[in-house]
Design brief:
Distance between the termini: 16 Å
Number of domains: 1
Largest sheet: 4 strands, antiparallel
Strand content: 25-35%
Number of strands: 4
Structural class: alpha+beta
CATH topology: Alpha-Beta Plaits
Shape: globular
Strand order of the largest sheet: 2-3-1-4
Length: 72
């Protein structure tokens, strides 16, 4: 499953660090955090997508405390 989310990130370096950290989560097939568009695209296993998304949110917060991922 592949979904896009609005993300609030302060700089391109922060986006890269968050992207790198989330990519290491088991079950994540691909992730892209774009500073300019303030969007995150997450592609992960269908059956565990919600669990992986929650892990991604926690990982992003741990990596950059100011980061916000908005889940609709």
């Amino acid at each position: 499953m592949k979904k896009k989310f609005k993300v609030e990130v302060d700089c391109a370096n922060c986006a890269a660090k968050i992207e790198n950290a989330i990519s290491k989560i088991e079950g994540v097939n691909a992730v892209s955090v774009n500073f300019l568009t303030q969007k995150m695209t997450l592609e992960a296993d269908d059956d565990r997508f919600d669990e992986i998304l929650q892990q991604a949110v926690k990982t992003a917060k741990k990596t950059e405390a100011d980061c916000e991922i908005y889940i609709d």
